[in-house]
C-alpha cells in the first residue's frame, strides 16, 4: 500500500489563506460556507457536505460526519474522457476510491481562505485536471456557487463530456429515515433551460402536512453563460439498475440525457437529482474550459432567469468571489494580532471568525453537530456576545437588552430561543428543565459591556420578563397560563410588567443563593455548564457555579456603589417581592441553615407565582450592596472551609460537585483521584479561591489533569458510569465531556490564571491548545479551535464552539491587556518573552470607543512578564498623560472619542 504523506496545512497569505496537500487522505474534514441571509453549507475535500437554510429545508441530504466518507452522494462533477472513461472532479467515484492508496491515485490540493474553498485534483493517466472553487456569496441570496475549471494536462487532444450531479433531497431532516420514500412521492420536479428545480407539494414533518412553497434547484452554465445540453432530473434513472451515485450508468456509459436542451419536462414522485449534462468539447493540451453550478433554495418558485443572469457566468463568479473575500476579511480584521509567531497570528484569524460562524449556524448544520435541530441555547446567547463586544460592538447593546426578555420571575429563563433577537418561545415539548448555571452568565457579559462602553444607563433601562407554564424553577406548573395570552409576565391587574435590567440581574443571582442542597451549595438541578452532569437533579450540588454566583454577587455589590458614586443615585426601585431575597434589609436569614434558605425561597415563589403585584419598593442602594456583599463573603468562606480537598501531595483543589446520593464527588479515593477542571476554573476566575490556594490548585491540575498528548483534561478518570451524576461518564474516558481536552474550559482556565497574575502558567495553557490544534498530523482539523480534542489527539466538533469567544476575549483583554474600565481604556499587557518579535514588538488592532486602535508594545529591555511596566504611551505621536492603576495605565474615553472616525489610531506603548 502506497500511503502518501500527509503534511501539515501551510498558511499562504496574510489573511488566513492556507493550503493542504492530499486533503482527502484525512477523514472527517469539512469547511463552512455561509452567509447572513441564512444559507448554511459545509463542504469536504471530496465535495461532500450539506446545503440548507434550516432543519426543515435541506437541498442535499442531511448528514453527520460519518457520512462524509461513507455516503456516495456529493456535489459531484463528472467528466467522461472519450476512450478513457469516467472521472470525478470531486474524487468521488468507485474507481478513484479503489485507487486511493495506489500509484494511480489523483494528486490533490486544498486551498482555502475566509469562507471560500478550492480543490484542485489531477489525474496524470487521463491527462486532466479539475479546479473546483466553492463559496456562498455574502448578502441575502440563499445560494451556493461552484466553478469548475477543467484543463487538459496531457500532450494530446482529449474530448470530454461533463455532467454535474447533485442529489436534490428537498425536504426536512426528519424525513431522512421516517417517510423517506413516501415524501419522495410529494416531489414535483421541473426542468428549465439551466437546470432542475424541485418544489414538493407538501411539507411532511412534525409541523403537519401543509402546502409547501419552498423550492430547491441546481442550475448550471458553461463558460460565459452557455446553457446545459440536457438533464437527468430523476436519480434512479441517472444511476441505472444496479448503479450508484459513485458509478452512475448515465456517466459510465456516456448515455444521452433523459431530457434534452431547454428542459421544459415535468416529473413527479421520484428522488430528484440536479443532473446537468454539458455539451461535449475538445480540449487541446493546456486548454481549459469552465462551468458554473448554482445551488439555490427559495421560499417559492425560483426566479431562474434572475439567478442565472446574476451568477451564471465565470466572470460573475469571480467578481462575487472577490466581494466575498473582502466581506469576510472586513469582519475578521476588526481584530488582528502581531506577535513573534506569524502562524499563530494567522491561526487567530480563524478563531476570530468562529464566533461569527456560531451566530450564523447556531449549534447545528455542520457535520459533527448532528445532535442539533438549529438555533442557540441561553448560554450561547451570552457567551457569543463576548466576542461580538470586541468585533461588532455597535450591535451588542440591543442584543443584550433583547436577551434579558428571556428571564423568568423565578430567576430561571426560557430555553427555547426564537430566530429573531429577543424572541423566546413558551415550552412546546412539556419538558421542564433548568440548567443551574444559566443565571450566572448574563451579568458577566453585561459587565464586559459596561466596562467597554461606560453605559451605566443600560442598567436602568426596562425590559419585560418571560412567562410560560413553568414556575418555581420548573418544579410547578401554572394551570392558569394559556399560551394565547402571550409569553410576557403580567401584574395582578393584567398589565405587562417591566423591570430594569439591574432588577433582572439581581433576580438571577439572588434566587440561586437560596436554592441550595444539603451541603449548602446551589442545587445542580438539570445540569450546569457541563450538560453531561444531568442525573443529579434531586440532591446534586454544583460547587463550581456556587463560586461563580458568589463572585457575581460580590461584583454586583461593587457595581451598585459605583453607580451611586458616578450618578448620585441613592435608591433602587425593585419589584416589592424581591425584598424577600434581600433578607438583611428586613427579616434576616441564617445562611448556615439550609432549611431557612429554602423556606425563604418558598415564600418568594408564593409571593410571585408567575405574576407580580406591580408595586415597587424603593431601597437604599448602599443597603442592597451590603446585602450582596454579605452573601458573597459567606459563600467564599463556606467554600474555602467545606469544599477544599487536601491532597497527600501537600497541595489541594476545590471539590466541584456533590452527586445525587449527596456524596462529595472529588478527592483522593481508594479507586483513584477524582478531579474536575471546571471545579477549579470558577473559584479561580472570580474571588472564591484565596490567593494562598492558587499555587496548590495549579500543582494539582498539572499532576492530575495535564496530559502531554491531549492537553488539560476536563476531568480525571472516575472509573465507570456515574448514574448518580450524569450521562457524561457513560462516554468512553478521553472523549467529549468525560476526560477529553474540552477547549472551552481549558481557555477559561487560562483566562483565570491570567486574571490572578499567573501569566506564565496561563500562557502554557493557551499555547498547549494552539499547538494541539495546529498539529494537523494529530488533530486532523483545519485552522481554528475545536470543541474538544479526544484521546487520540483528534480535534472534534470544529468551528462551532464557545471556546473561540473566550480565546479571543482572553487574547485581547488579558494577553494584550486592552480592556475597558467603565468606558475608559485600560492597558495592562501580560505578554511573555516569546510573544515579542525580533524587534521587541507585539501589537494588536482592535475596536474601542468606536475607534480602530493599533496598540504597539515595544520592549526596550527584557521582555519577560514581571520584568517590565508601561514606561510611556504616545497616541498618534503625541505623549499621553498616564493615569497609573495597579500594573497598568488608564486612558480616559474622551481622549479617544475626540479622535477622527474612519482611520486607524496608533498607541505606541514603551515597556521598560
From TrEMBL:
InterPro entries: 6-hairpin_glycosidase_sf (IPR008928), 6hp_glycosidase-like_sf (IPR012341), Gal_mutarotase_sf_dom (IPR011013), GH65_N (IPR037018), GH94_catalytic (IPR033432), GH94_Enzymes (IPR052047), Glyco_hydrolase_94_b-supersand (IPR010383)
Record's keyword terms, sorted: Glycosyltransferase, Transferase
Domain Glycosyl hydrolase 94 catalytic: start-end pairs: 625-817
Span of domain Glycosyl hydrolase 94 supersandwich: 122-312
Coiled-coil stretches: none
CDD domains, A to Z: GH94N_LBP_like (cd11749)
Superkingdom of origin: Bacteria
Protein name according to UniProt: Cellobiose phosphorylase
Organism per entry: Paenibacillus auburnensis
Amino acid at each position: 500500500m502506497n500511503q502518501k504523506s500527509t503534511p501539515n496545512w501551510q498558511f499562504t497569505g496574510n489573511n488566513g489563506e492556507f493550503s493542504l496537500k492530499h486533503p482527502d487522505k484525512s477523514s472527517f474534514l469539512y469547511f463552512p460556507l455561509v452567509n447572513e441571509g441564512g444559507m448554511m453549507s459545509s463542504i469536504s475535500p471530496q465535495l461532500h457536505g450539506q446545503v440548507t437554510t434550516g432543519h426543515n429545508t435541506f437541498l442535499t441530504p442531511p448528514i453527520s460526519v460519518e457520512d462524509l466518507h461513507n455516503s456516495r452522494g456529493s456535489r459531484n462533477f463528472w467528466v467522461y474522457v472519450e476512450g478513457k472513461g469516467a472521472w470525478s472532479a470531486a474524487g468521488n467515484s468507485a474507481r478513484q476510491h479503489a485507487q486511493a492508496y495506489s500509484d494511480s491515485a489523483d494528486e490533490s490540493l486544498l486551498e482555502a481562505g475566509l469562507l471560500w474553498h478550492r480543490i484542485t485534483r489531477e489525474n496524470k493517466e487521463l491527462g486532466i485536471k479539475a479546479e473546483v472553487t466553492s463559496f456562498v456569496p455574502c448578502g441575502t441570496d440563499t445560494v451556493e456557487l461552484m466553478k469548475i475549471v477543467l484543463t487538459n494536462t496531457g500532450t494530446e487532444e482529449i474530448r470530454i463530456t461533463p455532467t454535474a450531479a447533485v442529489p436534490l433531497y428537498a425536504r426536512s431532516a426528519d424525513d431522512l429515515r421516517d417517510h423517506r420514500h413516501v415524501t419522495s412521492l410529494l416531489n414535483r420536479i421541473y426542468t428549465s433551460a439551466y437546470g432542475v428545480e424541485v418544489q414538493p407539494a407538501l411539507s411532511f414533518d412534525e409541523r403537519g402536512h401543509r402546502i409547501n412553497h419552498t423550492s430547491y434547484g441546481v442550475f448550471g452554465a458553461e463558460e460565459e453563460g452557455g446553457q446545459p445540453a440536457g438533464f437527468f432530473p430523476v436519480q434512479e434513472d441517472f444511476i441505472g439498475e444496479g448503479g450508484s451515485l459513485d458509478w452512475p450508468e448515465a456517466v459510465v456509459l456516456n448515455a444521452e440525457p433523459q431530457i434534452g436542451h431547454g428542459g421544459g419536462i415535468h416529473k413527479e414522485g421520484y428522488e430528484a437529482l440536479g443532473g446537468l449534462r454539458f455539451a461535449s468539447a475538445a480540449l487541446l493540451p493546456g486548454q481549459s474550459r469552465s462551468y458554473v453550478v448554482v445551488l439555490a433554495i427559495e421560499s417559492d418558485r425560483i426566479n431562474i432567469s434572475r439567478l442565472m443572469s446574476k451568477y451564471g457566468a465565470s466572470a460573475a463568479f469571480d467578481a462575487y468571489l472577490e466581494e466575498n473575500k473582502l466581506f469576510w476579511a472586513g469582519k475578521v480584521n476588526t481584530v488582528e494580532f502581531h506577535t513573534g509567531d506569524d502562524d499563530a497570528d494567522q491561526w487567530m484569524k480563524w478563531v476570530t471568525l468562529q464566533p461569527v460562524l456560531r451566530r450564523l449556524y447556531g449549534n447545528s448544520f455542520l457535520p459533527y453537530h448532528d445532535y442539533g435541530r438549529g438555533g442557540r441555547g441561553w448560554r450561547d446567547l451570552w457567551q457569543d456576545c463576548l466576542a461580538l463586544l470586541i468585533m461588532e460592538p455597535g450591535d451588542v447593546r440591543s442584543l443584550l437588552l433583547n436577551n434579558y426578555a428571556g428571564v423568568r420571575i423565578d430567576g430561571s429563563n426560557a430555553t427555547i430561543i426564537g430566530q429573531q433577537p429577543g424572541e423566546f418561545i413558551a415550552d412546546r415539548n412539556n419538558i421542564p428543565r433548568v440548567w443551574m448555571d444559566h443565571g450566572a452568565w448574563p451579568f458577566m457579559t453585561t459587565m464586559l459591556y459596561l466596562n467597554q462602553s461606560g453605559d451605566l444607563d443600560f442598567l436602568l433601562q426596562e425590559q419585560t420578563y418571560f412567562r410560560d407554564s413553568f414556575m418555581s424553577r420548573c418544579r410547578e406548573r401554572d394551570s392558569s397560563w394559556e399560551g394565547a395570552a402571550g409569553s410576557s409576565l403580567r401584574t395582578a391587574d393584567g398589565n405587562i410588567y417591566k423591570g430594569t435590567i439591574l432588577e433582572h440581574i439581581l433576580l438571577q443571582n439572588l434566587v440561586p443563593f437560596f436554592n441550595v442542597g444539603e451541603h449548602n451549595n446551589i442545587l445542580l438541578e438539570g445540569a450546569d455548564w457541563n450538560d453531561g452532569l444531568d442525573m443529579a437533579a434531586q440532591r446534586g450540588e454544583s460547587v463550581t457555579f456556587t463560586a461563580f454566583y458568589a463572585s457575581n454577587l460580590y461584583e454586583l455589590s461593587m457595581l451598585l456603589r459605583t453607580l451611586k458614586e458616578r450618578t448620585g443615585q441613592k435608591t433602587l426601585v425593585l419589584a416589592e417581592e424581591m425584598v424577600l431575597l434581600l433578607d438583611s434589609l428586613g427579616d434576616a436569614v441564617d445562611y448556615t441553615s439550609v432549611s431557612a434558605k429554602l423556606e425563604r425561597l418558598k415564600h418568594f415563589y408564593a409571593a410571585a407565582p408567575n405574576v407580580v403585584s406591580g408595586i415597587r419598593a424603593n431601597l437604599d442602594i448602599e443597603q442592597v450592596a451590603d446585602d450582596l456583599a454579605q452573601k458573597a463573603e459567606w459563600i467564599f468562606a463556606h467554600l474555602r472551609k467545606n469544599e477544599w480537598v487536601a491532597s497527600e501531595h501537600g497541595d489541594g483543589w476545590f471539590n466541584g460537585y456533590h452527586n445525587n446520593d449527596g456524596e462529595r464527588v472529588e478527592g483522593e479515593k481508594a479507586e483513584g483521584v477524582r478531579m474536575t477542571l471546571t471545579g477549579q476554573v470558577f473559584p479561580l476566575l472570580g474571588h472564591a479561591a484565596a490567593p494562598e490556594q492558587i499555587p496548590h490548585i495549579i500543582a494539582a491540575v498539572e499532576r492530575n489533569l495535564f496530559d502531554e498528548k491531549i492537553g488539560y483534561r476536563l476531568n480525571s478518570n472516575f472509573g465507570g458510569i456515574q448514574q448518580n451524576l450524569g450521562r457524561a461518564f457513560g462516554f468512553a474516558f478521553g472523549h467529549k465531556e468525560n476526560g477529553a481536552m474540552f477547549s472551552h474550559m481549558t481557555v477559561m482556565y487560562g483566562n483565570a490564571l491570567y486574571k490572578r497574575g499567573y501569566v506564565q502558567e496561563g500562557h502554557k495553557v493557551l499555547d498547549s491548545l494552539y499547538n494541539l490544534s495546529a498539529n494537523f498530523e494529530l488533530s486532523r482539523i483545519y485552522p481554528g479551535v475545536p470543541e474538544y480534542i479526544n484521546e487520540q489527539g483528534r480535534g472534534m466538533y470544529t468551528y462551532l464552539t464557545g471556546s473561540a469567544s473566550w480565546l479571543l476575549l482572553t487574547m485581547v483583554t488579558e494577553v494584550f491587556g486592552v480592556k475597558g474600565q467603565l468606558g475608559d481604556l485600560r492597558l495592562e499587557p501580560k505578554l511573555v518573552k516569546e510573544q515579542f518579535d525580533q524587534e521587541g514588538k507585539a501589537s494588536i488592532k482592535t475596536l474601542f470607543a468606536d475607534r480602530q486602535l493599533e496598540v504597539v508594545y515595544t520592549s526596550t529591555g527584557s521582555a519577560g512578564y514581571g520584568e517590565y511596566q508601561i514606561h510611556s504611551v504616545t497616541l498618534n505621536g503625541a505623549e499621553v498623560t498616564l493615569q497609573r492603576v495597579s500594573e497598568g495605565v488608564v486612558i480616559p474615553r474622551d481622549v479617544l472619542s475626540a479622535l477622527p472616525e474612519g482611520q486607524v489610531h496608533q498607541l505606541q506603548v514603551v515597556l521598560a
